[in-house]
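Students often ask what a 'structure token' actually looks like in practice. Rather than answer in the abstract, let us consider Site-specific integrase, a protein of 351 residues. Its sequence is given first.
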Amino acid sequence: MVVLQEPFEFLVNECIKRGRVKSEGSWDVYGSALYDFLAFCHANELDWRDNSDRDNTILSVYRDWSVKDCGLATSTVNARLRIVIKFYKFALRKGWVNSLPYQIEEVKVPTSKGFLAHTDTSGGWKTTPDVLLSTQKTRIHVLTHGQVKELLSSIKNTEHKLITRLALATGLRKQELLTFPTKYIVNPAGLSGSRFHVRINLKPEDMILKGSKPRGIDVPISLMEDLWRYIQLERGARASLSGEFQSILFLNSEGLPWSSNGRGLNKIYNDLGLSFHVRPHILRHTYATHSLYLLRKLNCKFDPLMYIRDRMGHASLSTTEKYLHVLDILESNVMDSYQSELDEMCQGIAQ
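Now compare that with the structural description of the same chain:
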């Protein structure tokens, strides 16, 4: 239980002073990655400052141990290594080490053929630390129209079904779903304007948003009606169980907010016994892919890709572009239909 000054100073600089790592969940990831590496060094009596062995660097030894002895996934090992590499770069600038425990090499990468292909000046090559493992491109999982119908028909609990519908209709992240405030739900009967959807402006002071960045989402009128009915008829009984005022919309069986970092939703979907995997991030991918497909079919006055980027809260358009690749590989009959309310919502947006 002794504080190590160098990694502590790095974490303060990276997570607080620089302000680039705004999510407290990411702070935990940074701290855990450094703790795992330094614990490995301590257990094997290795000094993290010693970079004298250039043929068998401390990072390569740590990497191989993580894969062979711990059985960690390639993506997990690389994610931890990238944080440790940042730490070593910081240590070099501070003069704590004289060299870095890795070399930089050039690797061939696939060139973009999508919307942003004209902005790629890499020539198909990029530089990367040589200790990182080679990875395969992660496949995005998207539910088909039939799977969406099967999923929704399998869920009997009203609250669980509303959470799922909200995810499918807006692309909210898990933490955003489970911290969504009651104040955002309004009586559709008193609204004027679009008959297809309700624009809700999400604010970081009201809920957890990645990077604490506000953004807008469009909720279908039919879903807003059901959420309003849920508040009026069912939520009150659940909220009274805790004996405390709860500002969050969805509550657990004890009348308390769900743990936004827990696996409660995953368990709910696992318990359904479906033949396909369902996770909150898969629902998010499903929203983005199907919405992009529908908006591209319509005569929109705006760029559908930009619209999806803003609704999803992506920092970069290149992140949203990955859904274009999904459209290229999915069969057209998979994409031709989705929830009718989502289809109507997209038509309303395009008008």
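One point worth highlighting: Confidence is low (pLDDT under 50) at residues 331-339. Ask yourself how you might have guessed this from the sequence alone, and why that guess would often be unreliable.
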